[in-house]
Amino acid sequence: MNGKPDAAIFTQDLCVGYGNKEVLYGLDLSFPPGTFTALLGPNGAGKTTLLRTLARLLPPVRGKILLQGKNLYDYSASALAKRLSVVLTEKVNPGVFSVFEFVSLGRHPHTGFMGRLSGRDLDVVRECLEWVKAADLAHRQMGELSDGERQKVSIARALAQEPEIILLDEPTMHLDLKHRMEVMGILRQLCREKGLAVAASLHDVDVAARVSDMAVCVAKGREARSGPTEQVLSENRVAELYEFEGASYDASLCTLEMRPKASREKVFVNSGMGSGAGLFRLLSKHGFSLAAGVVHANDLDCFVASAIGADCFIQSPQEPVGGDSLDNALKSALQADLIVDAGYEIGPANQNNIRLIQAALSAHKSVFSLRSKEDAQTIYGKDSSSMILCNSSTELLEKLLAASRPGLHGE
Amino acid sequence: MENFAQISKQRWTSGFIGLSAALMAVLCANIFLGSVKIDFSQALHIIMSGDDASTLGTILWKIRIPRALASAMGGAYLAIAGLLLQVYFRNPVVGPYILGISSGATLMVSVVMLTSLQLGLTQIAPYLTTLAAFAGAYGAMMLVLAAAAKIRQGVTLLILGLMIGYLCHAVTSILVAFAEKEQVKGFVLWQLGSFSGFHQSEIYILFFGGGAVAFGVYLLSKPLNAFLLGEEYAASMGVNIRLFRILILLAACALAGMVTGMAGPVAFIGLAVPHMARLVFRTSDNNVLAPGAALLGAVVTGVCDLLARLLFSPVELPISAITAFFGAPIVIGLLLRRRVVS
């Protein structure tokens, strides 16, 4: 990305590291106001080193950092503190302080020699607590807070410096789901409504993909990639960044899927319209090797099945099920040991899928179905009597496990 | 919110008033009570008239008043030094002697008290112990400051201070092993500290020198507060870390060294009084805590010195024995009740 002159922070051929040890190099980054930038990368890649360098807590090995067009190192300590603040991973334990007093510490660069708080200082502190939705915590002692509350208050303290850019090191570490979402929401709001430039190192790619405007991906020994999140976080790049083994990332759903090694025989799942997504995960978790078909390319089942590593038989969304996909799926179904009918609604676009189940039934395969008895009868006729009907996916799993002989078919 | 802040302010105000009153009471007790009984009205008359020629006048003006003042100021400075180092190292078990100041002083004093070195120096003999203690304390301080300019991490500095302490102790132990019994007793008693025998000049030094440093510490309370969050946060809020680190160490060592030079090592006060002050004022705000700890240190040390003099009068106990014996259980009790550590 090209540095715009109005960028809050802009780096030029920046190299960060400790002493002469280079950790990341060739960084040309820009952090514009009002944008959320996520720093992503595996542990030890240098996210924290980069953040510390941007915050002037660590000198750069070489290269330039410009803060609002001026060299970062040309600012006085307090002038810098009025423009840039940080939230570090280190758990602060300031001692006996109320939340309000703690957040007031952030007024440091604005107060006079003895640190007395003016009326305006108090107003700012109150406002900052409201920004992080922690006004009700003001009277509480710091020692009594939960990790989530403490993190919100830490952000309020950073805000109290009235900066134009906030750098956060893994702001969601150790937080429960509620606070994780709340903190990300607060950071987004600070970008949108207050126009702050926010840069945070994050571990959850899926969260980063949902909240960040820009992403910077860093990995050891590789060139950093940066740009709009949607461009940077493609499937392959995420897998490459974290060197995934046994997992995959789906960029359109922003989800991570596990790809456990199959230890049981192949199950052919006939599904559609989202009926299979949950089943794929359930079966793959229990070690079944999966095949899925025939699904339309725009079906949720198709996304999940591919992400999970199933053999997929895919039909173009404009066509009804048929043709090569159906032929291949038929072959696969007849080779599979167990067949599952996920019990989706049948319509003109997918009615040929019925032929898969019928073929399996006539080949005397074990066919499991989530349909009711009547439903199965109407759709498959009298062949349906040999189907094993299940009321729920749990029951289906039990029956499949009973029918399975682990290890024999494992690959 | 305002209401809440007001409650804190009220507590602080009443804390300061209460402690000031206690300090006055302790000073009076230290002046009017002692192994030689002096009538209250008589004592008052002697003090008012400024008579220091008579026997009782000498006892009051040359012995009790300097001692009362010395114990109050000594306690105040040790408490401030302890507070500074606890904040700097962000460690509640740190005291003013953690950086080897008392060990340095002890080493130098052992050299003059346990060897025959003093034989050649009869001219300055009365001041020799004090001078040696000063040299030792400030020698150790110089070492620590020189190291602090190079070492970035607080913990490393802490360990360095401990190591300096062990080194000094090693040399001291060797001297003790070769020393004569009589000398060893005197030395052991010196090691336990005493506020007796303060000269007028020493009181002036304590008052003006120490007072100036203590006031300087009060002026540092804003960056000290920033330091409560750790060095990196302090830096990110605009504190000049290098300068500030040197100032903290300089002030703490100067205060602790001054008291140690004149009174010998006084245990416990510097470590415990900051905790007691946090419990009294229920805050870690150094704007309140620095003067608060100083007042409380003066009161506690004054009381301890009074007990040291009176408990087994006319035998006088070492001050460190009293400070630790009565102080430690109090702190333990307070901590268990309130669960405030840092």
From TrEMBL, chain A:
Domain ABC transporter positions: 9-245
UniProt xrefs under InterPro entries: AAA+_ATPase, ABC_transporter-like_ATP-bd, P-loop_NTPase
Pfam families: ABC_tran (PF00005)
One MF annotation (Gene Ontology) recorded for this entry: ATP binding
Keyword vocabulary terms for this entry: ATP-binding, Nucleotide-binding, Translocase, Transport
Keyword ATP-binding found: yes
Function text: Part of the ABC transporter complex HmuTUV involved in hemin import. Responsible for energy coupling to the transport system.
PANTHER family noted in UniProt: HEMIN IMPORT ATP-BINDING PROTEIN HMUV
The protein's name in its UniProt record: Iron complex transport system ATP-binding protein
From TrEMBL, chain B:
Organism: Desulfatibacillum alkenivorans DSM 16219
Protein name, entry field: Iron complex transport system permease protein
Subcellular location: Cell membrane
Membrane-spanning ranges: 12-33, 68-89, 95-115, 127-149, 155-179, 203-221, 246-273, 318-336
InterPro entries (UniProt xref): ABC_BtuC-like, ABC_transptr_permease_BtuC
Domain of life, source organism: Bacteria
Family statement: Belongs to the binding-protein-dependent transport system permease family. FecCD subfamily.
Lineage: Bacteria, Pseudomonadati, Thermodesulfobacteriota, Desulfobacteria, Desulfobacterales
Recorded topology in the membrane: Multi-pass membrane protein
SUPFAM superfamilies named among the record's database cross-references: ABC transporter involved in vitamin B12 uptake, BtuC (SSF81345)
Key words, A-Z: Cell membrane, Membrane, Transmembrane, Transmembrane helix, Transport
Pfam family, one: FecCD
